[in-house]
Design brief:
- The complex is a heterodimer of chains A (331) and B (324).
- With 331 residues, chain A is of the alpha/beta class.
- In chain A, 38% of the residues lie in helices and 21% in strands.
- Chain A is built from eleven helices and 14 strands.
- In chain A, the strands form three sheets. Chain A has a seven-stranded mixed β-sheet, sandwiched between helices. In chain A, strands 9-11-10-13-14 form a five-stranded mixed β-sheet, with helices on both faces. In chain A, strands 1-8 form a two-stranded antiparallel ribbon.
- The longest helix of chain A is centred in the first third of the chain and has 15 residues.
- With 324 residues, chain B is an alpha/beta fold.
- Chain B has one domain: Rossmann fold (3-Layer(aba) Sandwich), CATH 3.40.50.970.
- Helices cover 38% and strands 10% of the residues of chain B.
- In chain B, the strands form two sheets. A five-stranded parallel β-sheet of chain B has the order 1-2-3-7-6, with helices on both faces.
- In chain B, helix 7 links the parallel strand 6 and strand 7.
- The relative contact order of chain B is 0.17.
- Classes of the chains: A alpha/beta (331), B alpha/beta (324).
- Chains A and B meet through helix 3 and helix 4 of A and helix 5 and helix 6 of B.
């Protein structure tokens, strides 16, 4: 992306820009969801889009997740490109049949007769007291059902570039936007065609001593931990896979071959999370490069408490990541 | 020539074609039944015997560009919409000649987007929201197409019925719902499934018309569907058409139906639409020729399907993604 003009945008504005650009580029692209139009979204992400594109292309739905996802599936089968928002990623479960059966399997069951270019925008993770049913990180569910692509942008630039790729992709995409990142600003390259490809991990910090694979909000926390450890002479290499399906294991494995150690960090519950899959693949494919077992950090096996202080105790913080990296380095 | 009064939108040539379709679908159903009896296949074949008239008549009320989502009982909808018996039998027997290229064996996912046959979900009632979605696409694109969603009385219990109904009514989507009320949700009679006798009563909750017709009378079904399709195409929103019909066979072919005490001779179809349509054709011998042609077409297509190849094992990894 060298040489491009950059603008400082928040993660939310970057997503908004991606939506607007793609709707301008292709009139088959349209949106729906609860409160996405007149209100501009519960998190303000879709502000201004109904004004520009009208109430036919930016549709406020009833409180109706099975229709939001199932209707998007039908509209995709009929030649349009729907981008739909569930207000919280947790509502994947209220539209479970539509997400895990219809989006994921319709093409396969019908022998490839149909396209399913649906992007499902899913505000994910802790937001500060939203409670057990509005705070989960459910990306592993998307990984476990073949037919779905799974995306987790950690920066404004990735949010924009990955969303544009998602909208242009012919397969259904679960796009997990972290609610805690919406206000975070970062440099975003200008240009309608600046896409971030799927299946290409980002090495966000190079380092020789230990590979940290982190996703979503944890990418920033891993970078903070890396800075802290650098003062102690430990150099973490931080890798953000950016997409879990497809998953760029090659970049991760190449890193582990150099560092000999790997720590996987995510906000989702540790048990059977995405980290379990990544750790297992590292063990299977880079076992002889390892100087220590692959470790995982994730949320405790508990629902997220509603209290904003208690909820933070459930997910990994910077100290926990730094502590785990220090211990793993010493093994 | 017939002297019967035909409903608006159906001329004598249309009536002849409707008869041809109905007797072909009937012959196809009976051929499948024979196959089940001969080779034991069919735990997932849900016969539509007796419901052919309403299926073909409702489809006859559509235009070729319109789309349908079918219910799981029968192949009549797909055949009436233009899919060949080779494709349908190929799917049913799991052959490469099927529309799903060998993936849809047993339980069926016939599909042909070009013909507007939009497929079927394995979870009952999932078609309501997808059908509302294709109707949204038509509204967005202004393509003038109408979507018809077929379903059984059992499927009407799903929450998707309400969620699609509510949104489709609010947005006045170009959509028609055709309920084939055969009185049974697998083993549960309608009286245990619905507090009202008519599913069509539910239309009132969405402020759309609910119409009840005799599903064994193809002309009545055609008339109701024709009006509903016209209304949808004119931007006036969805209509719920309920066709009262009968489940002649089990939930699936081979179901012994110990839960039923109303069973009669399976070869007798009460209020059978076939002789009813036949009587309308008049007495010029054409019906005999159509009957004979249908039987021959079915036998030949079924033999071709039986002789066709099973898919290569590599098919299991195909079509997961758009690029493979």
């Amino acid at each position: 992306m060298g040489g491009r003009v950059m603008a400082a945008l928040s993660y939310a504005r970057a997503i908004n820009a991606a939506l607007a650009e793609e709707m301008r580029r292709d009139e088959r692209v349209w949106m729906m969801g609860q409160d996405v139009g007149r209100m501009g979204g519960v998190f303000g992400v879709t502000r201004g889009l109904m004004e520009e594109f009208g109430a036919l292309r930016v549709r406020d739905t009833t409180i109706n997740e099975t229709f939001i996802v199932g209707g998007a599936a039908g509209a995709a089968l009929a030649g349009t490109i729907p981008v739909v928002e569930l207000q919280f990623a947790d509502f994947l479960f209220t539209a479970g049949d539509e997400v895990f059966h219809k989006l994921a399997k319709w093409r396969y069951m019908h022998g490839g007769a149909f396209e399913m270019p649906v992007t499902l925008r899913l505000p994910t993770g802790l937001v500060g007291g939203a409670g057990a049913e509005h705070s989960q990180s459910l990306e592993a569910f998307g990984m476990h059902v073949p037919g779905l692509k799974v995306v987790l942008p950690a920066t404004p630039a990735d949010a924009k570039g990955l969303l544009k790729t998602a909208i242009r992709d012919r397969d259904p995409v679960l796009f997990f936007e972290h609610k805690g990142l919406y206000r975070v600003k970062g440099e975003v390259p200008d240009g309608d065609d600046v896409l971030v490809p799927f299946g290409q991990a980002a090495v966000v910090r190079p380092g020789a001593d230990l590979t940290v694979v982190a996703t979503g909000l944890m990418v920033g926390r891993a970078l903070e931990a890396a800075q802290a450890l650098a003062a102690e002479g430990i150099e973490l290499e931080v890798i953000d896979p950016r997409t879990l399906v497809p998953l760029d294991m090659e970049t991760i494995l190449a890193s582990v071959e150099r560092t000999g150690r790997a720590l996987v960090v995510h906000e989702a519950v540790r048990t059977a999370g995405a980290g379990a899959e990544i750790a297992a693949q590292i063990s299977e494919r880079a076992f002889f490069a390892l100087d220590a077992p692959v470790w995982r950090l994730g949320a405790l096996d508990t629902p997220i408490p509603q209290d904003p202080e208690l909820e933070q105790l459930v997910i990994p913080n910077v100290d926990a990541i730094a502590g785990a990296a220090r211990e793993l380095r010493a093994l | 020539m017939t002297t019967a009064t035909l409903p608006d939108g159906l001329d004598h040539a249309g009536l002849v074609e409707l008869y041809r379709q109905v007797v072909t679908i009937r012959a196809a159903e009976l051929r499948l039944r024979r196959h089940v009896e001969e080779v034991g296949f069919g735990g997932f074949w849900h016969p539509g015997i007796g419901q052919e008239g309403l299926q073909a008549a409702a489809v006859a009320a559509m235009e070729p560009r319109d789309r349908l989502f079918y219910a799981h009982r029968g192949l009549g909808y797909a055949y009436a919409k233009g899919m060949s018996l080779d494709l349908l039998f190929g799917d049913l027997l799991g052959r490469v000649t099927g529309s799903t290229r060998g993936k849809g064996g047993g339980t069926v996912h016939f599909a042909d987007p070009e013909l507007g046959v939009m497929g079927q979900g394995g979870t009952l009632g999932s078609n309501f929201v997808l059908g509302a979605g294709t109707a949204v696409a038509s509204q967005l694109l202004g393509d003038g197409r109408v979507t018809v969603v077929f379903f059984g009385d059992g499927a009407a219990a799903r929450g998707t019925f309400h969620e699609a109904g509510l949104q489709a009514a609010v947005w006045k989507l170009p959509l028609v719902w055709v309920c084939e009320n055969n009185g049974w949700a697998i083993s549960a009679p309608i009286a245990e499934q619905s507090p009202t006798r008519d599913i069509a009563d539910r239309a009132a909750a969405y402020g759309v018309p609910g119409v009840v017709v005799n599903g064994q009378d193809p002309l009545a079904v055609f008339a109701a569907a024709h009006e509903a399709v016209a209304r949808a195409r004119a931007g006036e929103g969805p209509t719920l058409v309920e066709a009262k019909t009968l489940r002649i066979r089990g939930h699936f072919e081979g179901d012994r139906q110990p839960y039923r005490d109303d069973l009669t001779n399976p070869d007798e179809i009460p209020d059978d639409p076939v002789p009813k349509l036949r009587a309308l054709l008049g007495d010029d011998g054409r019906a005999d020729a159509l009957d004979e042609g249908a039987r021959a077409e079915v036998e030949e297509a079924f033999d071709r399907a039986l002789a066709a190849e099973r898919p290569d094992p590599s098919v299991v990894l195909r079509d997961v993604w758009a690029d493979g």
